[in-house]
Amino acid sequence: MSRDSSISSLVWAGVLLLLAACVPLVANGYWMSIALTIAMFTVLTTSWALFSGPTHYISLATAAFFGVGGYLVGTGMSDFGMGFWPMVAIAPLVGAVLAFLIGIATLRLSGVYFVIFTLGLAEMIRTLVSWIQNNFTGSRGLYVLTDLSEADIYIYLVILAAAVYFVGWWVNRSRLGFALRIIGNDETVARHVGINTAMSKVILFTFSGFVAALVGALIAPRYTYIEPNGVFSPELSFIVVIMALLGGTGRLWGPIVGVIPFALLQEYINANYSNYSTLVLGIAFLVIVYFLPSGVVGRIEQALARKGRSTW
């Protein structure tokens, strides 16, 4: 991408985020709730794609970091009487440290082994938290009571989305972004040309964990009552992956293209056919793998490229 087109994409992203920030002025309660869901998944998919997009490492650990963020806020407020904002400051730091330690231990794995480990990680943390609550605290969940409305949380998530997008824009133009793209193409070649592949991957994996934990912390007041099966649900990790792959991970804004239609589809399915939500996830994944391996954005770019060649 040229310098002019890169700056142009940043400007367009800024304009769209400003428009997104105006949604609370016009949306009623129902659409505000949907907009909040879209904002949450926009941040999660964009941060996920920063790591998994260029490296092609499919991480299913999003629910683990998201759950850690939400649960730390609930624990701090319910069990230790701490305020919401101090816990929001602590939660992403804990998520980042957890992601860093996991990254150091596991990012030498690749392919299906890394996928299985990240999926198992979220399940292990969910089971561990449930066991601790059942055996030591005697409760199943935690209350997160604040004065924040859905519109307030939505604005915070839009601001976070802007920050994550800007970090992604900067990474794509940096030596770190170049190193990650080389790793994604051929990790052995990357090592031979002197790239510290492990450290490059750990940096982005840690940032992804930081953002997921921060999202979990910010959105905790929306649920009011938090329990492990909800915030650590593996379904959240699969939805993030499906949304990102649906839009396409080749461009920084690609995952956002997948978030909006899938969030609306999921809302319709949950409202009318709630027993089939898992079936929809499976079908969506099969459709993406067989018909949209490069996502909607990749498919559009391929069509435009073919049209350009046929013109000549």
Helix content bin: over 70%
The H-and-E topology, N to C, reads as HHHHHHEHHHHEHHHHH
Number of helices: 15
Structural class: mainly alpha
What is the distance, rounded to the nearest whole angstrom, between the alpha carbons of the first and last residues? 22 Å
Please tally the β strands and state the result: 2
Mean pLDDT: 84
Largest sheet: 2 strands, antiparallel
What overall form do the CA principal axes indicate? globular
- Output the strand order for the largest sheet: 1-2
Question: How much strand content do the residues show?
Answer: under 5%
Low-confidence stretches: none
Radius of gyration in whole Å, from Cα? 20 Å
Describe the protein in words.
With 312 residues, this protein is mostly helical. The chain contains 15 helices and 2 strands. Helices cover 81% and strands 1% of the residues. The longest helix is centred in the N-terminal third of the chain and has 27 residues.
